[in-house]
Structures are given as C-alpha cells and as structure tokens.
Amino acid sequence: MMKVIISGATGMVGQGVLRECLTADDVEQVAVVGRTKLTQVHPKIHQVICPDLMHADQELERLQGFDACFFCLGVSSSGMSEERYRQVTYDLTLGLATVLAKNNPGMTFVYVSGAGTDSSEQGKSMWARVKGATENALQKLSVAGVYLFRPGVIQPFV
Length: 158
Known about the structure:
Layout: E1 2-7, H1 12-23, E2 27-34, E3 45-49, H2 57-61, E4 68-71, H3 82-103, E5 108-112, H4 126-138, E6 145-149
Helix pairs in contact: 3-4
C-alpha cells in the first residue's frame, strides 16, 4: 500500500491526480498540502493546511514515510514579473521538495511542468527558463526518482 502527497489538489491537474489516487486500491493515504481546506471529504485524505507555503517547513516536517509526491501546484506566468514567477515556480517548488525529500528519501517525486520548457535556461521565454531551472534543480533531489511531465495541452474533465 502506498502513501502519497499531492500539492495543487484544487487545480485542474491536481484534481485529476487526487481523483485517481482516491480510487486506486494500492493507495492507502493521500496527504493534500495546500493553503486552504478541501471541501471534499474522503477517508484516505489527510489535509495539511499551510496558509503560507513559502514558510511551511514545520507543517511539512510531519510528513514522513510517504512513497510519492505529485507536485501539481503551478501558476500562469501571464502578467507576472520574472522575479515573482520565479518565487512561485522555482523557490516554492524547491522549498517544499527539499523538505519532503529530507523526510522521505525513498520517495518518488513527480513534477508537472509544461511543453516548451527550456532545460538550457537560456531561451527567450521567461516562463520556459524558470521551468527549466526548476526541473534541473529537482533532478538533483536525493530521492528514489524524479519524473518530469511536460503536457502541451490539458483537456479539462467535465
């Protein structure tokens, strides 16, 4: 039986991941990390409320013995400065991932990125450079494995 962590469970991708984890027979517990409480109630769900995800170390320290983390949290870069987008996409992601990796070294870390991400970190597109830097840093985590998904288009589930 697996124990998994999901960040971004209220977003479009995170909702789908949560739905699949709740129906999977081999998943016994789902820790949902977020700023606000989910309205959904399920026996597998354990909510970890972190009003300020940039300073969530204390809450995350309690998450130990987990097998996987699905990091689905993300924002659009539209209208954001590179500095602000980097804070949310790189700093926040690496901050949470580092704490989780320290407490769960056997964990698999799954990151939802995006098509067009620039691993060289040298391209013209701001969001692609930041996503590339984030992916590159995540691949250095001391965990069992890191998987990066770069969907081009995501069809909402209705």
